[in-house]
TrEMBL record:
Keywords: Hydrolase. InterPro entries: Bact_Sigma-Reg, GAF, GAF-like_dom_sf, HATPase_C_sf, HATPase_dom, PAS, PAS-assoc_C, PAS-like_dom_sf. This is SpoIIE family protein phosphatase. SMART domains: GAF (SM00065), PP2C_SIG (SM00331). It comes from the Bacteria. It comes from Streptomyces heliomycini. Pfam families: HATPase_c_2, PAS_3, SpoIIE. PROSITE patterns: PAC.
Amino acid sequence: MANVVGEGAAGRSTRTLRAEGALTAIAADPRPPGRTRRILEQALVFADVAFAAVYTLSADGELLHLAESVGVPRTLCGVRDSYPVAGRAPVAEAHRGRPVWLEPDDLAAQAQSRRVPSRDFFLAALPVRGGGCLLAVSERADGFGADDRRCLGLVADALAPPARAAAEGADLRPDGFSLVMDTGRVRVGEDILELFGLDPDGFDGRVETLLGLTVPEDLPSLMSVVEADHMTIGDRELEFRVLQPAGPPRWLRLRGRLVHGGEGSPARLVGSVADASTVRSDITDVARIQRLAAALATAVTVRDVGRAVVAALRRPLRADRIALAELENERLVVTVLDPPEPEAWPELWRAEWRTEWPDAPVRTMPTLAAALREGRARIWPAGSPLEPALAEVGPGGLAVLPLPAGNRMAGACLIGWDAPHDFGPDERALLTAAAGLAGQALIRARAFDAEHELVGMLQRQLLPRRLPRLPGAVAVARYLPSTAGLELGGDWYDVIPLPDHHVALVIGDVQGHSAGAATLMGQMRTALRAYAVEGHPPDVVVSRSNRLLMDMETDLFATCCYVDVDMEEGSAWCVRAGHLPPVLRHPDGRTEIAEAEGGPPLGVVRQSDFPMSPLRLRPGTMVALTTDGLVESPGSDIDEGMNRFARHLSAADPAHLGPVADALLGKAPRGDDVALLLMRYDGMTFRPLRESWTVWRVPQAVGHARRFTRRTLRSWGVSADIDGALLAVSELVTNALVHTDGQVRLDITLVNDRLRLAVADASPRTPVKPTSIGWEATGGRGILLVEAVSATWGALPVSGGKQVWAEFVLRP
């Protein structure tokens, strides 16, 4: 590289020359610590990018994995951990040898860029010699200039040799190791073999041999590091113990890093192992506290905290029972009992049993109340005078651990023994340390439980409580939240009954996971329902929802699939806004991913076309709508996920939709929220008779409407009870002609013995029934007459106006 700098320096900018010099210095040592990261950092310095990453080929050659990254978190740039090699992502294109330079408009135009963040950025993907690519993201308004592109090219060139050398496995240091993840073969330095007490000539190169020498209690944590399924890219550090021929176990410290191999090479865990026993004074107690701290760090709920405390203390202390209780308003609410059987606990506790756990006031146990006021662990040996509620917990000895958290008391932990128990100084120190850890964890878990309940309540309020009964169809829906923390998802579904036996099936997904995304989801669900009930066609419903979202001026966007099903005809119109298409399961078991045209996501482009695509439904056809959380997962293409979803749907039994939905959700990866909506179209048993008449604005309009009604009813065989219907037609048509402008239409529908008369006009104003009419009034009696002669009446909005209707029950 130095020669290149010397020969072409005259034609390069100062920034380019400085970048070449920095990269040359890094390349002087082929294997310095963190070499790849230091090279990527030069992209931040000299190309002024916000994010830079290198992708390498997986062992099976199917994926490009993120090997190293620098800059802002990748989630802010919409960057994934891995991409399919055969896909069309910029990373895959660069791996095939073609540099990719994308501007914000290019990214927005990509159909698969649903995860692209709201703010604009520029993206570059450059091939790396030997396989893989360099990915860079710039947030500058002018994007990548000429110097920026030259500097990124230098960074890509500098990445190639080390990636190849690492993939081939360079020589190890005495304290280093290199573990092949898929085979378990490991190369270790001489210092590590000495720490494990192994002869270099007798070591068989298997990681199982090393694991067999570790203390069994430390094996699970060590396995979590050396198993590839539990690893992600990044550094790992762990302390564990190995058995010695004589004396106590030795503490070792492992530092490692998972590195994906190059093309044709498996992933490797590389790092070092050093002696850490000099910093361990009391191995047994420290190990117990270390395990408790590790368990409490991952404990999310109050129940999790209780189970972690029981697992860490009951067996080591040989206790007969442990209770963990929260302190709420001077009452102890027990959340974990071990053993859980009521018979193992005092009579007072059983008398105060509340549903699942006991709930007793602190004042009923003065000794416990005093311990909580003092805030320190108290121990009573066998025979100590205690109130019955405590004496029966530990007749052979009782330990009460107040659980402090800052300047407040979170609760208490009671540990009891049946046989007389001697409390040594080590146990007292263990109990004191455990109490402090448990108190802090209990406060965090209580806050999590409260927020989780609030999140769940909000999520339940935003989704339909139950689905309506449909004429000629059955529908079920499921919502499965993500298991990742408290984040609210933006997935939603809806089933909207519409006039004339139409039903709208809606499913959608708002970008992101936050309270803002969930709130916007509720707004979009309400907007779509309102526009649908107004009587607009599907494309207008989605288009107006798009304009509404644009007017909200939010940074979030939403995807949506809207299907309007005509239950009488067995036909449907589908509109997609950046969402997955419906999947149809035909009566013969054949599945089909509907070829429905799609528009952009809602909230991206104000003036957008949302084309309608026709669907044909035969009786027995199942319509399935889902969000991407069910079919998309890291390392798999979404098209592959849709095909897998269609195969599972083909093998399902459409006669029972509930078990079908549960089985489909059971296969979800749970990395994202999932919404699923299934409808089985059975067809209507009785198809209504319908006729329509356009009422012209002529003097004889009302008479024409009455004659049309009479002829229609006679052709249907209805001859009795038509006087009231004719009177209602007269009043409804007269009101429409007198009080509105534009076209007036009369619709007549007969279903079994129910006759429905409806008059539609262009005015959105709903008629109001007068409260009183004087003898001198000249109008206002029409609605009263309609109400008097009909079984029921009402008004509903239609596209651009309203429809006033009245129903009659005919005698057989």
